Amino acid sequence: MGLAQHFSAYGNWRSAVSARLQQLGDWLQANDLADTQGALRLQQLLERLREEKLIVAFVAEFSRGKSELINAIFFGDYGHRILPSSAGRTTMCTTELLHEAGQPPAIRLLPIETRSRNASVTEYKRFPEEWRVVELDTSSAQAMNAALLQVGERKRVTPELAERLGFAIDETAAEGLRPDAQGLVEIPCWRHAVINFPHPLLEQGLVILDTPGLNAIGAEPELTLSQLPNAHAILFVLAADTGVTQSELAVWRDHVNGARSRQKGRVVVLNKIDGLWDGIRSETEIGAEIARQVADTAGILDLDAAHVFPVSAQKGLLARISHDEALLAKSRLPALERALTAELIPAKQEIVRGNTESEAADLIAGTRALLEARLGGIVEQLGELSALREKNQSVIEYMMLKVKSEKEEFEKGLQRYYAVRSVFTQLTNNLYAHLGLDALREETRRTRDAMLEAHFSRRLGEAMKRFFQQMRVNLEKSAGKIAEITKMLEAMYEHFSSEYGLKVVAPAAFSLLRYEKELNRLELGFDGHFNTLLNMVTHAKRDLTQRFFDTTALQVRRTFEQANRDVDRWLRAAMSPLETQVREHQLQLKRRLESVKRIRQAADTLEDRVRELTQMQAALEGQLAELKEVAARLRDTLHAETPQAAAAAA
């Protein structure tokens, strides 16, 4: 089973988990147990599962066979090439292959001229009118190829314009584009391409990122600061006949592996090994030559040789199209696919499983606590009513006074609850004063103004350093407020649990560590690119630095937006169980009081009420059993053994 089939199995697993979560939601709704907050959390969980993406990026110099490798791995069963693949430069801009539900098949192309404005590709995605749209006829291979060829369109411009758009110019062609006889340079027509294609793998959440040649990588900040670091796997494609060039080594260190503390998800592909199949040397000699190339490549890149895979993408694609198993084995493509399968999909599945299980477990635990509280109230009432049998009126009066006293005492305790809620609201407002986006926007504005006024590289660097320092201070202050809120919640939960016997457990503490680490990663990424820009002898240096800052600031904003969303969910989830239990306890006290009142009014009501409570007890016990079964089905589906897990175990 190839990577495509394994990813399909992963997509089916995700769909099965979604179905189980939907069953849980339906069951909660049918049993009147779905409060607003719980329903919202479940809906958000389902949406995250539906929108879950698995991003695989391909990075290489021109003519290394990137596009052919994508065709061979993901689209070999399609019967023809999806991406254009020919000699020379075919991928001229960053290209995303994905599926957007509800949108017709099409290619969206962002003009290269948009680089002159300080706006990221992500921002431009909000404005469809800025893109050129090319319809994609998926019923015709020829029509698809013709449309996709437009991604690689080029044009000739003056060196001055090319520099303004972020391209380096070099008369020797060693470090940039070289002007031709007319004094012009060739640049891509498009800055970014998005191909919406209804392929089964893409429909299940796969996103393929095909990058331009190495010389273009540094000119697009979003690619180096966001898209590549956030990819779940990066395939760095080299040519078996050339090995690792100096420019490829620099990109490996700076953009592919430099921002990572681990090599997981980073794979090197030595492509075009079919060039060694000369018909003269024996298979043993060819194998030895390939092994030497693998060892040399691993040594240069400081990488475990097990992460270097020699393949022939062209022969692998041909074998897939012609169903030639012998040629497929000779292409060594299955070994690369097995490695990606064993490393990429299980790691992603484990993350999805952990997040889903944690959220669902909280929801199920809250529901179970509510049912158990109701059951406890019923059992207590039954005990009281059973004791009232054959008792005189004075005992009934005593019971009524007792319940009244408990109700009044609880309502007095609620005053403390409301006071704590007021403090909770105040602490929450203080938290958002540091973590909120208003403070971030103001600091971003100050930094941008400082950079515009800076005339020297040192002042540019100081402005950025202050920006990250302030963001770190904001996170530290936010962490302090979260600690205060956590301490207050623990005390409040402990009080209501010990004083009134409510079955509530204080919520787990919330950590900002992941956002601090992301801020550190962004700062390291910017510092690395900033130092590179200092070495550029070009009047466009400050403009390019400004563009890198705008991209970095956008990534910081996304980090804080995610932190705000996660904190908001945590705050809501932290209060929800106690609020539910308080309401339930009030309701139970009210019911007990009404029950004793009715018994005082009519003796025969006692037996009716006992029968009614007995039926309610049986119904609640049945609901708890059903909840346990629903939770077990969800757990079994989450931990179901998928094909790649079975293969790894074997």
Question: What does this entry look like structurally?
Answer:
- The protein is α/β, with parallel strands linked by helices and 650 residues long.
- Among the domains are: 52-99 and 193-331, P-loop containing nucleotide triphosphate hydrolases (Rossmann fold); 406-601, no CATH class.
- Helix content is 65%, strand content 9%.
- The protein contains 21 helices and eleven strands.
- The chain has helices at 3-30, 36-51, 66-74, 121-124, 141-148, 159-164, 200-203, 214-217, 221-230, 246-256, 283-301, 313-322, 325-331, 333-388, 393-435, 437-453, 457-500, 513-534, 541-601, 605-638, 643-649; strands at residues 54-60, 94-98, 106-111, 132-135, 154-157, 185-188, 190-196, 206-210, 233-239, 266-271, 308-310.
- The strands form two sheets. The chain has a nine-stranded mixed beta sheet with strand order 4-3-7-2-8-1-9-10-11, sandwiched between helices.
- It is elongated.
